[in-house]
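Inputs:
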Amino acid sequence: MSLVEDRYDDYMFGLLTGDTRYCARLFHELLKAGVPVQSLLMDLMQRAMYEVGERWVKNEISIATEYMASTTTNKLLSRVFPALHQISDEHHSAIIICTPHNIHLIGPRIVAEIIALHGWKATSLAHNLQSDALIDIIRERKPDVVGISISMIFDRADIEGLVAKVADTFPDLPIMVGGHAFLIPEVGDRLLETLKVRAPNLHHFDSIATLEAYIDSF
Amino acid sequence: MLNNLTNPQHPLHNPDAGNHPLPHDQMEIEAALRCARRILNLYPYFMERYGHRGEAFTRSDTGYLVTLLNNEQHCVDREVGWLARVLAARGMPRFLTEIHLDALAEELVMLVPEQDKRFKKLSLAAETLREERLRYMSQADFDTLSADFETNSTGTIPNVGPILVGAVCDEAAGLKGVIPGLVSWLDDGQRFSAAWRHALADTLKRARVIAEQSKGHA
C-alpha cells in the first residue's frame, strides 16, 4: 500500500469533520516523506472529493457536510500549495476558469496549482465569469494560455460560447479544456469535436501527465 | 437558458435546489408546473412527508428534467439515472421518477403536440427505469402487492403501496438505503396506526421474497 493510500481514510476523516489543520498537517507529513505534490492533489484531494460527491448522492452525508468538505479543500488549496510553487520570474501565465454559473471550482483550482508548480503564474477565477469579462481580463493580463473547465453536461452551450468568443477575439491564444463532462462516453468526444471546429488552437487534457508535458513545452 | 440561482422570479425556481438550469419556454414551464401539481396530487406522500420543501423540489426537479430535452437520449438517461438515485436515497424510490417522467412527457405533448418526438426522450428514459424495475418483479405482482397494501393499511395516505414495492425493486437492484430511508418515516408509530405498520411490514416481506426469486432467475 502506498503512503497516500495508507493515509486516505485519515484525510477523509479530516475532510468530513472540516479539520483543515489536521488535513494540512497530513499533507506536510506526506510531502516530507517524499510524496509528489501531484499525487496529493490527484490521489488524495481529487479522489476524496469524488467520494464525497458519491456519498452525498447515497445520502450517507448531508449537503452541509459536503459543503464543509469543499470549503476545507478550498482552504487547503489556498494555504498549503502556494508555498510549494517554484521560485521563478513567472514569465508564463495561465488563466483557468469554469463555465459561467458552475460552482464546481475545485477542479480548475487543482489544475491552476499544477501549472503553478511548473513556475507559471496560474490564476483560477471565481465562478460566474461571463464571456465579456473573460475577454477583458485576457486583454489585460495577456496570458499564454486560457483553460476552461466544464463539469456538468448541461453547461455545454456555455463552454461552446466561451470558446468561440475567446477564439474569435484571440485566434493565436491556446485554449485548454477539460473537466468531468468530457468523461461522459460519446458526449465528451462529440463536445470536443464541436469545440475544435470553433477553435483550432484548442487542446483537451484528460490527465495531469499530458497537461504537464504541454506546459513544459512552452 | 435561464439560471436557477440568478432568477428567483422563475416559476420553477427553488433556492434550496442549488444551481441548475431551468426551461425558458413558457409552454414548457406551464407543462412542468402542471406535471408537478399532478404528481403531488397523485402521491400525497410528498406533501405529507416533505411539506413545502417537497413541493418546491418537485417543481424545480421537473424544470430540470425539461432542460434535459436539449441532450441526446443516452445523456438524458444518464442524468435521469443520477437524479433517480439521489431521490431514491432520500425516501423517493426510482418508481416515482419513472411516473414523474411519464407524466411530464404527457403534459408537454398536450401543450406542444408538434414536438412530441422531442418529448419522447423522457418517455424513453422512464422506460429504461421501468425495464430495470421489471427485472425484479412483474408488473402484475407489483400491482397486486401495491393494491393489497392500500386495502390492508386502511389507507392513511393513499398510493403509498407502489412506493413501497418500488423501493424493494431498488433494493434488489443494489441501491442501498432506499428502504431504511422510507420506513424511517412510514413506520413511525407516532404517525401511523398498527394496521398500517403491519401492512407495511407484510408488503415489504412479500415483495422481498418475489424480488429475491427474480434475482435467482436472472
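Strands of chain B lie at 2-3, 21-22. Flag for discussion at group meeting.
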